[in-house]
Amino acid sequence: MSFLLATHVVFGLGSLVAAGGALLATKGGRRHRLCGRLYVAGMAVVGLSGLTLAIAIESMFLGCIALFSGYFVYSGARFVYRGEGRASMLDWLVLAVFLALAASMAVLAAVFYRVQDGRWVVLSVFAALAFLLGGGDARHYRDLRRKEEQKKEKESAAVRGRARKVRIKKHLAHMLGATIATTTAFTVTNISSEPIWLAWLAPTALFLPLIFYWARKVDMK
Predict the structure, then answer these.
(1) Under a CB-based contact definition with an 8 Å cutoff, are residues 200 and 184 in contact?
(2) CA–CA separation, 18 and 39 (whole Å)
(3) Number of domains the chain contains
(4) pLDDT tens-digit series, residues 7-23
């Protein structure tokens, strides 16, 4: 158990460093891609080790957080690697599991609220974010399918440019969403707060403005 925890912590810290490198590097450049690959690899280890730890200590709460971050890493990477290609059956399956997770987090939040556990605030916020971004992903996948079915041979440069911006914004939002979950886990492990949800939501309050900032920056290009 101690080895698994150490692995989780080390790779979590490494992933945060890689995320910082990707944010500071020129988007799409060699350093950005390298840091991005390191981030995805590190977060894969973090997600699997976190889920294993959650099962070992029988914590549904921590299990939800591990799956939450795992989806954002997977989908964020797929928006880059898939490009404008149609979403695969695996993409849809992972999305369905994520939306089921969002519903589970909402139910768990209600349970925590009834027993006066302050973590209900965190779960409520994460569930809302999951429904919001997951619903947006579903609409995006549907649009890609319709576009392919229409089989348009020619598209204007403006249309291709808008599609690319949507893909880049989703990539940034999902990768930063995973970073929020990772930073949250680090924060609550090392910082005690009153009320309890303050430390849990501080990373969300920090990174959400960054998501809006990068989205606006992409729109202005």
Answers:
(1) yes
(2) 5
(3) 1
(4) 888 888 888 888 888 87
Cβ neighbours, 10 Å, residue 109: 23
Q: What kind and span of H or E run contains 145?
A: helix 119-150
Cβ neighbours, 10 Å, residue 41:
15
Classify residue 194 by its DSSP letter.
S
Digit-coded pLDDT (tens) for 128-151: 988 988 898 898 888 877 776 565
User: What are 116's two structure tokens?
Assistant: 């006066």
pTM of the full structure: 0.74
Q: Quote the CA–CA distance of 138 and 91 in Å, as a whole number.
A: 10
* Residue range of the domain that includes 21: 2-220
Query: Is-contact 12 65, C-beta < 8 A?
Result: no
As a dihedral over the C-alpha atoms of residue 211, residue 49, residue 198, residue 106, rounded to 10 degrees, the angle is: 80
